[in-house]
Specification:
Blueprint (H helix, E strand, L loop, with lengths): L1 H21 L11 E7 L11 E5 L4 E6 L2 E7 L2 H13 L18 E7 L4 E7 L7 H13 L7 H9 L2
Helix pairs in contact: 2-3, 2-4, 3-4
Length: about 160
Amino acid sequence: MRVVTLALMIGVVAATGARAAADPCKPAAGAPIYRETHGPLTPTPDDAAQTDTFALFANGTWTWSRPGDPGNGGCITRTQLREVNRAIARARFRRPTEPTVTCDALPTARVVYAAPRRGKRITSEAPCGTPVDRTTQRMIDCAHAVMQAAAPADADLRAICRGA
């Protein structure tokens, strides 16, 4: 779990540090529009001590936190936020209806993808857990894409977020 989570989150945090410093963001407020939580596969009483959380808010501010770490954050552009909002609106938060292929690795983490303002969430495992439907996967890919230091060009981001 930590390898996958650290690779994703450290890459996001390290890569966006310069952009976040150049663009002062408004403080995160209210419920996030997108939240991704990585935690232990088997719930235990100390889950909070082992949980990483990534959240994106309606004003374009994003945060990443881990217990014992002060966390990090940044902000995205209005165009990027519009694409993420569209992807969130289209996401069905279901399992695929067609047969899907996954890898053979054993899952080591539980991942919860959520759109709190829509009241939707779905749980999977990482790596190689139960897949999510295409629209939900596009939402996840879209959120990950806008957090990169070199975010994709607008046309490329549209293709990622809309599946075009």
